[in-house]
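Case 386 in the screening queue. Each case pairs one protein sequence with one candidate compound; here the compound is pyridoxal-5'-phosphate. For every case the pipeline is the same: read the inputs, emit a complex structure as tokens, and attach any notable structural observations.

Predict complex for case 386.
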Amino acid sequence: MNNEIVPAELDYRELVATYGSPLLVLDQAAVRKQYRALTQALPGVRLHYALKPLPHSAVVATLKAEGCGFDLATNGEVDVMLENQINPDDCIHTHPIKRDGDIRYALEYGCKVFVFDNPVELDKFLPYQDKAELLLRVSFPNPETKVDLSKKFGCTPEAALPLLRKAKAMGLNVIGLSFHVGSQVPNSKRHVEAITSCNQILRDAAAEDINLQVLDIGGGFPVNYGADGADFDIYEFCAPIREALSHTPKGIRLLAEPGRFISAPCMTSVASVMGKAERFERTWYYLDDGLYGSYSGQLFDHINYPKSAPYATGEAKPAVLAGPTCDSIDVLADDIDLPELDVGDVIVGKMMGAYTWASATEFNFFRKASILVIDSQEAIEIKAVA
Ligand SMILES: *Cc1c(COP(=O)(O)O)cnc(C)c1O
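Case 386 output:
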């Protein structure tokens, strides 16, 4: 299986015949392409890939080779860093709420930068005063995004200075500010508002001799989930962000924590038809992957992934795509036009790298899809199946 070369044009049917179904095909070239595009769109900003949407070593290894940093939130994510021999100086730990054991585990690994947003969290750093460097997470509510992270985490902009003063009085080393405006944002307005507000906090703090060195602008950078599959113009999306960052006080180091933007385009799902039935004037196709599996993001992340039957021919008819479990909510598409499919035919889902496999369950004991790692930039090479 190692180093086996498959034909330049990927035939998902052959992959399933060889490696089984369901599969997720992870293309490292897509990871590289996204990292480079965002690096160009945000010059001067050091990127730390947020592991949460796809904590897979193939992504981590690709990004390590590109010189990317990493954004961790849990001990399990620290373990992925250890497995891939990532330099802890390239890591930040950004969970605003941690247990003492989480802080200790990250510090033992060597990651020094942590996030806080309230006084209770500050107390936890007293024993690690001389080691830990802190970022204060500020919240900017974003009702426009479906995943609005500012309710759950972050202090209000008004609370920032008092918290910075308190940390200083406690002898803790706060090095900067961070925020996360929410995931898959429709435009860069919130990023711009948050940067502008943080620029002011940085100046106000400096006026009180609290000299911060870092501004971390978080994640949220969107991708195109449309059926057309067109590339999203991230350079244009980031133009207002570049402008806002040009007003950040000189000497401030800039960071970002992209997750979805880097990982979403890199995985393609391949599921197979297990059975079919005629119900309510539609053909129901029962697939071996579903809402409890790779398509979990349709529930948790509110995304409708582009799905197709690329090898089927004939006239399209109304169909339903259902997942394999015995639960009635496990339906991927209840109104999709597809040519007639047979048992064993495949359904392909695109843009399935972020918040898919990561949140998949094994409900009903249907195992998670295997991840097949390829690199379409070299030859298409089967790197691993796990
Ligand atoms: C989830 C998360 C990210 C990544 O967000 P995306 O919208 O996927 O880019 C970055 N930082 C933190 C703290 C997160 O929780």
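Case 386 observations:
- Residues 50, 52-53, 71, 94, 180, 183, 218-221, 257-261 surround pyridoxal-5'-phosphate (CB under 6 Å).
- The mean pLDDT is 93.
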